[in-house]
Q: What sequence folds into this?
């Protein structure tokens, strides 16, 4: 199969990447693409990297990286024809993606962001390829859900909901890329407890409120956007260490003895997020909120640790800060489980099986 993966990076990540590499915005498409993939932000190029050994050709587009897409259009001799202009930035984005679609001629188009492209663009792609979306966040309007042939989700409870909306759906868990370990190298564990993620009080309201209260009782250091939404005296503000994207995020997790996790509110009672695999993947003890299916992913108590409420979280963190041997033993077991069952190589095998049933 030929699989075109359409992705987007956070605007803040793109700004940081290009600001840190003067001249990158004027480099050729391949150099920019490799620089972006080398950040290991999100899924980066994990899909294409692990699909290739399975005999499938894939490529990731970062559709909202304007310098990258401009370089592609320039190299194809289509920059003038596609008419880049500030008045039609999103329209130009879609036109470039459609041109890339025409050139790649995929059997499957997979969008990580269901709302990224215009409805007309999706319609044009769907006429010639299997159009697949992937989601682990709040569902968009049903009209957008029905624009896809198939939607993959790491939320078990979404599969039936999407199917009832009239679109086929399949369960595909998230994963970890072991290449990160080699890129990081040895990282001293100097942080007692770390949390990396969105700190905003809206989308992650329940989980972040719990972490904020716990931060007053145990030594948590926080990384991520949204700290400014909390009062000045909040533990999140006092212990905020800035942003950490991609490899920097992995480095923070690897530097911690304990990594805290909480799920987005719409996850309901289901464990699914990236941090499950990112923290365990770099060999850090994961302390996460208890969910009904967590035991399907890890052996709770021997590979990860799960809390029910604020008091439980505080007690567990204090216990494993005091017991270094137990902390290390569980962290090592969690890493072994992730490398054995939860890598993107495993997930791409599952993805191919799903797609072969629909193409």
A:
């Amino acid at each position: 199969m030929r699989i075109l993966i359409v992705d987007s990076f956070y605007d803040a990540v793109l700004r940081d990447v290009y600001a840190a590499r003067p001249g990158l915005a004027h480099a050729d498409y391949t150099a920019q693409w490799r620089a972006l993939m080398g950040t290991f932000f999100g899924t980066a190029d994990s899909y294409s990297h692990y699909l290739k050994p399975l005999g499938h050709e894939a490529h990731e587009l970062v559709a909202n990286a304007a310098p990258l897409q401009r370089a592609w259009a320039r190299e194809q001799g289509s920059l003038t024809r596609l008419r880049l202009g500030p008045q039609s930035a999103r329209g130009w984005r879609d036109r470039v993606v459609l041109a890339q679609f025409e050139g790649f001629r995929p059997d499957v188009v997979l969008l990580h962001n269901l709302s990224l492209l215009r409805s007309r663009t999706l319609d044009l792609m769907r006429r010639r390829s299997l159009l697949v979306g992937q989601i682990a966040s709040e569902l968009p309007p049903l009209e957008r859900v029905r624009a896809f042939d198939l939607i993959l989700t790491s939320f078990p409870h979404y599969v039936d909901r999407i199917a009832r909306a009239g679109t086929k759906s399949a369960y595909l868990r998230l994963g970890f890329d072991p290449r990160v370990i080699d890129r990081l190298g040895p990282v001293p564990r100097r942080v007692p407890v770390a949390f990396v993620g969105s700190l905003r009080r809206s989308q992650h309201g329940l989980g972040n409120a719990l972490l904020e209260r716990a931060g007053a009782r145990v030594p948590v250091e926080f990384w991520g956007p949204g700290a400014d939404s909390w009062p000045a005296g909040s533990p999140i503000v006092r212990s905020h260490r800035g942003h950490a994207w991609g490899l920097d995020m992995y480095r923070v997790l690897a530097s911690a003895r304990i990594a805290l996790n909480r799920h987005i509110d719409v996850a309901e009672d289901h464990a699914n997020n990236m941090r499950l695999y990112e923290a365990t993947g770099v060999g850090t003890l994961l302390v996460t909120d208890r969910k009904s299916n967590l035991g399907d992913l890890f052996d709770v108590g021997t590979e990860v640790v799960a809390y029910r409420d604020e008091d439980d979280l505080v007690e567990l963190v204090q216990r494993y800060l005091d017991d270094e041997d137990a902390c290390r033993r569980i962290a090592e077991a969690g890493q072994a489980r992730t490398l054995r069952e939860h890598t993107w190589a495993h997930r791409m095998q599952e993805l191919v099986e799903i797609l072969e049933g629909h193409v």
Observations:
- Residues 254 and 282 are 6 Å apart (CA to CA).
